[in-house]
Amino acid sequence: SGGFVCTCCISLVPVEGAHDGEDLETTLSIKFNAPRAFNSQNRAVTESDYEYITKKVYPQAKAVTAYGGERLQPPVYGKVYISIRTKSGALLNTTTKKRIRTDLQKYSIAAIEPVIVDPITLFIRPKTWAFFDGNKTTLSNNEIASKVLGAIDQYNSQAESTRFNGRIDISAYQTMIDSSDPVSYTHLTLPTNREV
After folding, report:
1. Nearest C-alpha neighbor of 83 from the set 66, 100, 101
2. Which long-range CB contacts under 8 A does 16-20 form with residues at least 24 apart?
3. Which residues are paired to 83 by β-bridges?
4. Pairing between β-strand 79-86 and β-strand 61-68 as defined by DSSP bridges
5. Distance CA 9, CA 19 (A)
6. Best CA proximity match to 187, nearest among 172, 178, 195, 179
7. 22 in helix, strand or coil?
8. Helix axes 27-40, 47-57, angle to 10 degrees
9. Residues 80, 68: contact at Cβ < 8 Å?
10. N or C: which end of the chain has fewer CB within 10 A?
11. What is the C-alpha separation between 65 and 99, in angstroms, rounded?
12. pTM to 2 decimals?
């Protein structure tokens, strides 16, 4: 015969706290990912399909970029190259790359071979000089420097997550500096870069 267990006397106590979880997905992220999920239809055909499906099979990917081998010089046909920026910032080990490649092959059509490559980090280091006429402003050197650095910090904090495989918009950078105090000074910015 069936038994009855009184649930009022049972309690659960977690032994270990949760880990490796994620925050709720932002509205911006949903707006970005939803059309890609619909377009991919659970098959990898285009570069954006590979980008979306890679994030699906490897949730620790913060950003993914994919490109066909035909873009390389010389062209390599039949391969799609995928670069993954992890949430931790660490490079993927060989075992993880093989697992991701195997998982992606389930979605690939025809004889397209996914190849996982390490991202190349390029740091842009703009050199900015502010010029001003001391007779036309009441700001000191330090106040102007503070405004310029504040504008640069504001630029750096915007859209950080979309910079992987992105382009630096030097015009937006300069506009951010100009808008911090359009009357007091002008500036010159020269971008330099360093590959890691």
Report:
1. 66
2. none
3. 65, 117
4. antiparallel
5. 28
6. 178
7. coil
8. 110
9. yes
10. N
11. 18
12. 0.62
Task: Kindly report, residue by residue over 93-148, the tens digit of the pLDDT.
Answer: 999 999 999 999 999 887 889 999 998 877 777 788 877 777 877 888 888 888 88
Q: What separation in angstroms does the CA of 155 have from each of 26, 174, 177?
A: 21, 9, 9
Q: How far apart are CA 178 and CA 172, in angstroms?
A: 10
> Quick one: angle between helices 47-57 and 94-105, nearest 10?
120
User: What is the Cα–Cα distance from 156 to 151, expressed in whole angstroms?
Assistant: 9
Q: Which residue has the tokens 């004889």?
A: 111
* pLDDT, tens digit, 9 for 90 and up, residues 11-25: 777 777 765 666 777
Contact 79, 101 (CB under 8 A): no
Alpha-carbon gap, residue 2 to 20, rounded angstroms: 40
One-letter amino acid for residue 186 of the chain: T
Check if the beta carbon of residue 113 is closer than 8 Å to that of residue 44: no
Burial classification of residue 1, based on how many CB atoms lie within 10 Å of its CB (0-12 exposed, 13-18 middle, 19 or more buried): exposed
